[in-house]
Design a protein that fits this description.
The chain is mainly beta. It folds into 3 domains: 99 residues, Carboxypeptidase-like, regulatory domain (Immunoglobulin-like, Sandwich); 501 residues, Maltoporin, Chain A (Beta Barrel); 78 residues, no CATH class. It contains 7 helices and 41 strands. Strands 16, 17, 18, 24, 25, 26, 27, 30, 31, 34, 35, 36, 39 and 40 form a 14-stranded antiparallel β-sheet that branches. A hairpin with a 2-residue loop joins strand 12 and strand 13. The chain is elongated and about 110 Å long.
């Protein structure tokens, strides 16, 4: 598996250096924040410019200051979510303190202030939440609140299940990974691959060995960390130019953080089959034992300055699933089959039932195949599988209640530092590490799936002036997935003569189906396969610059992401695979398809650099009418293999496919993703001007950047060719 150098530490250190050097001038969206806006008036309704508004995050004491403009408006962007208190200062007017404001992710909270004439020493305190009706262009209709995350019941404590609380979101996990192996969601009719999940502004990506794009999850097939998540927001469509990379739902998750008060908890959730009723299809209850345990702790290292938060959750599960398989019966393992199967011409349909059912030796039997029947399948424990006419078939049922073993450990840590009133910084790290061991329908085999996903982010927010704010983000994501399907020790030890490829594990055998073990077949396949790996790394540098001038709120930015996708092995045939039409042809060793194998796979390393810039203006045309005009440009440098080993087949002008692969550094003959201009337009109108109802509309062009192509470009000769052998 040589030839691919990762060296993540050196690249990561270099990226930190770039962030430090370029931070003042870079720009892109920080999506884990909110904004407070409003207008300041006196009791007669006249606008008041020059009012100083102090915006205080009550949990941490962090304070930002804004000055109302000539039109009386103010705008405080890129604020951490949480509870806020606003305090006004203006000579000739009483000081007003506004409390009860809870800012959520993605929200643009409208807090209009009315000041009374009087001495500045006099203070008026108003406790009132932001209006329920959203009259701005920001969307929180997809918000999953902190209370919902913490209080609603969740089977398995997977907080992504709450996505379906939103209209237009459906859970299609049953279509993924053989019936729910991966969680998946469709947002507004889009495919699940088009969704983008972000944690504190950094991509959150699930790992798997075959490089399928999935919702972030671990070995438990759950998205753990309920205590670590404060809230999240789902944008389904018509979002602004600051969002991109995917054309589907944009899911922004913000983690909990430490506050000025120490707080924590410990927990354990238990599910046990002793408390369950028997499954209708079970003769006796199988074991189902699930333990989820852990705790969290957060608080100040220095009041109003330094805060820490940590969360751990462990997942342990032992669960049996009742299934019924079909194996070769004891007679076929001796080379005997019913006459109508072994010698059809001697036992036609017109022959007596007893004659057709009589066991006879299989003609042209290959004695060596009997070893495969005994070594690759257990002896069945059920009755004979009958034909539609009630005749024996050479196969029998096997009742199976093998136990799937799963463990996962999830850790999230966060460090917040309020450097000054103009500078804040936080770092966040998550890791999910576990393994899922799933017995196969052929109980001599188990599929072992180790999974580990890590994310790391650094975020620095700098207030350049009361009207200009910049936020920079450095991110690193590393999903790792492995998979191997091999014998589990329940069967006899396999001699080397039954191993298809020397040095590997037992291969696959299919009877009465197609060539692969995932297609339906009349006999449960023996699904052996050698290890495969999928290792991804994403390095991102992003930043957001927001500034206001008069009735305009501008935002502009750039984003750069380096993608490393390293692939090894094949999901089918890496240990060799044979397929047969019937039990008779299996015993005669007459394959129905060529023998398939992926011999000596090579680890390939795919690379891509993708980026974007955008500019956007939200202008207040009238006090009750806001227009958003934005333009986003995305681009990539194609899909490239680090050692110039990308193999692909091309078509000529007559659409005739080439007989020899094209081998190059680039997997693409032409890159069409160098210029992807995406205009975004939005409109928000408050017809009454009183915030009782609103009309919102939007238009946009969105693209999916194709940065997950390893499973489409990997299995081509000469590096990972699927060979087919005849004879």
């Amino acid at each position: 598996m040589g030839g691919v150098s990762l060296r993540p530490f050196e690249r990561f250190v270099a990226a930190i250096a770039v962030l430090i050097v370029l931070q003042p001038c870079l720009a892109f969206a920080q999506t884990a924040t909110g904004t407070i806006v409003g207008v300041v008036k006196d009791t007669s309704g006249a606008l008041i410019p020059g009012v100083s508004i102090a915006v205080k995050h009550t949990d941490t004491g962090q304070t930002r200051t804004a000055i109302s403009s000539d039109s009386g408006s103010y705008n405080v962007p890129l604020l951490p979510v949480g509870a806020y208190e606003l305090t006004t200062t203006m000579p000739g007017f009483k000081q007003q303190v506004r409390t009860g404001i809870n800012l959520v992710i993605g929200q643009q909270a409208v807090i209009d202030l009315t000041l009374e004439v009087g001495a500045a020493a006099e203070q008026i305190t108003v406790s009132e939440e932001a209006p329920l009706v959203n009259t701005t262009l920001s969307s929180t209709s997809g918000l999953i609140t902190e209370q919902q995350v913490k209080d609603l019941p969740l089977n398995g404590r997977s907080f992504d299940q709450l996505l379906v609380l939103n209209a237009g979101v459906t859970n299609n996990s049953s279509n993924m990974g053989g019936g729910g192996g991966f969680p998946a969601f469709s947002v507004a009719g889009h495919r699940q691959e088009t969704n983008r999940f972000m944690i504190n502004g950094v991509d959150w990506i699930g790992g798997n060995a075959t490089h399928q794009f999935i919702t972030p999850s671990g070995a438990s097939s759950q998205l753990l960390g309920v205590e670590a998540v404060r809230e999240y927001n789902v944008l389904e469509h018509t979002y602004g130019a600051e969002y991109g990379k995917r054309a589907g739902g944009q899911v922004s998750i913000v983690t909990s953080s430490g506050t000025n008060q120490w707080h924590g908890d410990v927990f354990e959730y238990l599910r046990n089959s002793a408390l369950d009723a028997r499954n209708f299809f079970e003769d006796a209850k199988g074991p189902f034992k699930r333990n989820q345990f852990g705790g969290m702790l957060g608080g100040p290292l220095k009041k109003d300055k330094v805060f820490v938060f940590g969360n751990y959750e462990g997942f342990r599960q032992r669960r049996s699933l009742t299934s019924r398989a079909i194996y070769p019966d004891p007679q076929s393992r001796q080379g005997l089959l019913p006459c109508y199967l072994a010698t059809p011409s001697a036992c036609p349909v017109s022959a007596p039932f007893a004659a057709r059912a009589a066991l006879v030796p299989v003609p042209n039997l290959k004695p060596g195949m009997l070893q495969f029947a005994d070594a690759f399948w257990p002896r069945p424990n059920g009755s004979e599988v009958p034909s539609p006419d009630g005749l024996p078939t050479g196969t029998a049922y096997n009742a199976n209640d093998a136990v799937t073993k799963t463990y996962e450990n999830f850790v999230m840590t966060r460090f917040d530092f309020v450097v000054s009133s103009k500078d804040t910084f936080f770092a966040n790290y998550t890791i999910s590490d576990g393994e899922r061991d799933t017995p196969q329908a052929d109980t001599y085999y188990t599929q072992f799936v180790p999974l580990r996903s890590q994310t790391f982010s650094l975020t620095e927010t700098h207030v350049l002036s009361p009207t200009v704010v910049n936020s920079a983000i450095l991110g690193w994501v590393r999903p790792y997935g492995g998979q191997v399907t091999t014998v589990n020790g329940l069967g006899p030890s396999l001699p080397k003569s039954l191993i298809f490829l020397e040095g590997g594990g037992p291969g696959s055998i299919v009877i009465g189906g197609g060539a692969t073990t995932v297609a339906p077949s009349s006999v449960t396949p023996a699904p052996g396969n050698n290890p495969l790996l999928g290792i991804n790394e994403f390095y991102s540098l992003a930043d957001d610059l927001r500034f206001t001038k008069g009735k305009h709120s501008f935002s502009t930015g750039v984003w750069v992401q380096r993608v490393h996708e390293n692939s090894y092995g094949a999901a089918q045939f890496s240990a060799g695979g044979a397929s047969y039409l019937t039990m008779a042809t299996f015993l005669q060793d007459i394959p129905s398809n060529p023998f398939n194998l992926n011999r000596n796979p090579v680890m390939l390393g795919y690379r891509m650099t993708q980026g974007a810039w955008y500019f956007q203006d939200e202008m207040k045309l009238r006090s009750n009418l806001t227009l958003r005009l934005g333009l986003r440009h995305e681009m990539t440098n194609g899909w490239n293999e680090v050692g110039g080993r990308c193999a692909n087949y091309t078509f000529d002008k007559n659409l005739v496919i080439s007989t020899e692969p094209r081998i190059d550094k680039s997997c693409l003959t032409e890159n069409h993703a160098k210029l992807l201009l995406q205009p975004r337009v939005g409109l928000a109108w408050d017809p009454t001007g009183r915030g009782t109802w609103a009309v919102r509309a939007g238009f946009g062009i969105h693209n999916d950047l194709q940065d997950n192509l390893a499973n489409r470009t990997y299995a081509n000769p000469p590096y990972n060719a699927r060979e087919q052998l005849l004879g």
